[in-house]
Amino acid sequence: MAPVVLALRRHPGFRPVLVSTAQHTDMLDQALAGFGLVPDVDLGLLRPGGSLSEFLSVATEPLGRLFRELRPALTLVQGDTMTVLAAAQASFFERVPVGHVEGGLRSDDLENPFPEEAIRRMVGTLASLHFAPTPRAARNLAREGISPQTIFMTGNTIVDALRHLRADEARTDVVRQLDFERHRVVLVTAHRRENHGQPMRQVCAAVRDLVARFPDVEVLFPVHPSPAVHSVVHAELRGVPRVHLSGPLPYDDLLHVLRHCELALTDSGGIQEEAPAFDCPVLVLRNVTERPEVVECGAGMLVGTERATILAGASLVLTDDDAYAAMAAAPNPFGDGFASDRIVDIIGRHVVHRDRQARLAV
Questions:
Q1: Are residues 23 and 145 in the same domain?
Q2: Which of 164, 193, 208, 230 is catalytic?
Q3: Which of 134, 173, 224, 227 is the most exposed place for a label (fewest CB within 10 A)?
Q4: Is 256 annotated as catalytic?
């Protein structure tokens, strides 16, 4: 969302108000720092260890109160977090139109990813403007009966973010210590709820197998702070040679790793979009993905969370030069880096200004 905020700030007709629920405070601060952004409103709603329904109930009321005070011309939400659902719901209740950035992604499986697939569908019914990142996403919305006049194919703003962040110098010690010259670095990230428990242990076992099979492979695993992830990953991989466990990386450091690593293993939606921009093959640690474009264009493979399947997929990429070259050369299906400008232009044409400068809650 950061490139959209920056584009709105450049536009003379809008006054964006950047709102944080603090669902993931540390990770948010890291991400925004690279763009020079600080939330205008921080609701401080984080409740460690709380349930999904608890966070939804805790977040909806203060967001509704904020929208009553601001009376924004539009609320912009992006993606599929609980904050997105709470903000869309509160905005709808306050009769404030909702614009959904990255709308229309579907896996057609409510359990995968959970709860993100359901969140996207619910927000789709509440939104007035749908900014689809790909033609497939736009078709998904039309298939669900969304008015074609409200669906706009813009490209994905993640490509805009990559264009904005060009620094190629690592800041964190763990990244600076990686030996990209002598070792093939593999980035691993895993955190999704459907992968908690035994699937996460299978992923960790595959990582152990990978470094045992390939003496020149070095693994970086930035570990999500969720206790369900952190406890398992550290129990399974702490002390394994050439496996580096770290906390979540600053966004520009993550991009530095993607730019130089040999391969990414991930269940993250964002990395599925970012890896093709750096010609980095990606193995998706899921059984289904709401971003099938990464597989269809040849940049990635679905490998699930079975130990043997992950190892087989990674081994293919690391040993078959033709397979690696084909994945690295695949075209990026997620846009040209100008999605934010398109979104701001669409908002300017479709949002009724209540004053000379329309407030937008982002």
A1: yes
A2: 193
A3: 173
A4: no
The residue-averaged pLDDT of 77-97 equals: 96
Cα dihedral across residues 154, 156, 159, 161: positive or negative: positive
Same domain, 309 and 187: yes
132 and 247 part of one domain: no
DSSP string, 302-353: E-TT-HHHHHHHHHHHHH-HHHHHHHHTPPPTT--S-HHHHHHHHHHHHSPP
Judgement on whether residues 211 and 262 belong to the same structural domain of the protein: yes
What is the DSSP code string of 181-243?
TTSEEEEEE---GGGTTHHHHHHHHHHHHHHHH-TTEEEEEEPPS-HHHHHHHHHHHTT-TTE
Q: Does the annotation count 169 as an active-site position?
A: no
Q: How many CB atoms lie within 10 A of CB 173?
A: 8
- Whether 116 sits among the annotated catalytic residues: the reply is yes
Q: What is the pLDDT of residue 31?
A: 80
- In the block, residue with structure tokens 């990953």: 233
Q: What pLDDT score was predicted for residue 170?
A: 76
Inside any domain, residue 59: yes
Q: Catalytic residue, from 224, 256, 286, 291: name it.
A: 224
Question: Can you give the pLDDT at residue 167?
Answer: 57
Amino acid at position 159, single letter: V
